[in-house]
Amino acid sequence: AMDLNQSYRSLVLAVAQHPSVKHLMLTRGKGFSRRFVAGDTLEEALQVVEALEADKIHAILDLLGEMVTSEEQSRQFQAEILRLIQALAAKPYPRYVALKLTQLGLDLDEALAVELMQGLLEEARKTECFVRIDMEDSPRVDATLRVYRRLREAGYTNTGIVLQSYLKRTERDLEALLPLKPAVRIVKGAYKEPPEVAFQDKRLIDGQYLVLAKKALENGLYTAIASHDPHIIGEMKRWTTERGLTPEQFEFQLLYGVRRDEQKRLAAEGYTVRAYIPYGTDWYPYLSRRIAERPENLMFVARSLVQG
Ligand code: FDA
Fold this sequence. Notes:
Elements: H1 6-16, H2 19-28, H3 30-33, H4 42-53, E1 58-63, H5 71-89, E2 96-99, H6 110-126, E3 130-133, H7 141-153, E4 159-164, H8 170-177, E5 183-187, H9 202-218, E6 223-226, H10 230-242, E7 250-255, H11 260-268, E8 273-279, H12 284-292, H13 295-307
Parallel strand pairs: 1-2, 1-8, 2-3, 3-4, 4-5, 5-6, 6-7, 7-8
Helix pairs in contact: 1-12, 5-6, 6-7, 9-10
The site of dihydroflavine-adenine dinucleotide has 25 residues, from strand 4 and strand 7.
């Protein structure tokens, strides 16, 4: 396997923003997007959920959309996510959604994002639905954590945050959050970040991942270990077994379309496993990050564009 570093990621994410590349992908990349995106509609996403549930893999449903630029768009996204939460209410499996705060207007007005989140959490708690706040790029980390704190102060416990091991600040963020006992998801981080704020070396990012996941678990936080990395999954299995941790204390999370066999295997071994299932028409930024994670994906997409 290739040793991926931030410079490959940065290059792909920069090229992806080029208007002609974007145009080509939007017009011809839809077939490829189906590797990672369940469909345009909620109904298509729910069919994927049924199929995964048959393998004891639970779902995290994510309506694609981010960085909105108007209050109207923010409210539209909130209405769509409410529809998602209500659709899940009727289902027998665990209810879980993910969203991004810039989808709810974080860049426009932090108070708007808080208000829209409160509406969602109010509806979600009627049906024991959990709402994960994804973490976005580094300029938005402070605001995201502030909104999370506001929601916790307002009494909402059915929500959690994400911490990224590539950011140099994250260990301090985790320490500062410990008194709140947040539900955390640990990831490596998917955005283009400069060396001032983020480690660029894969070994450092991986090492820091294990430090954060273990620290979260040692402090009794319910922890989602979100990675496809065999070394990380293997080490966390070993470590949690050695410590006698149970499936009530942690879970594994992977992305829809990535290492499906491993998802099944972990579930069959008795671990709690969730797959992150994006749906919706706003798939371009999500797909760009998936391509930036793995050179092979760039080859697949190039081939599918040529073949049409
Ligand atoms: P790494 O990138 O080292 O990959 C290890 C191996 O996994 C690869 O060798 C390959 O086999 C496989 N793999 C990884 N990515 C692949 C891909 N795209 N296609 C095919 N195979 C692939 N990030 C973020 O910044 N904020 C967030 O909120 C989230 N949320 C989130 C939720 C969940 C459930 C997951 C799994 C991931 C995220 N991420 C995220 C993304 C995360 O930051 C990271 O970019 C990816 O998970 C890839 O990193 P890995 O830990 O998988 O390791």
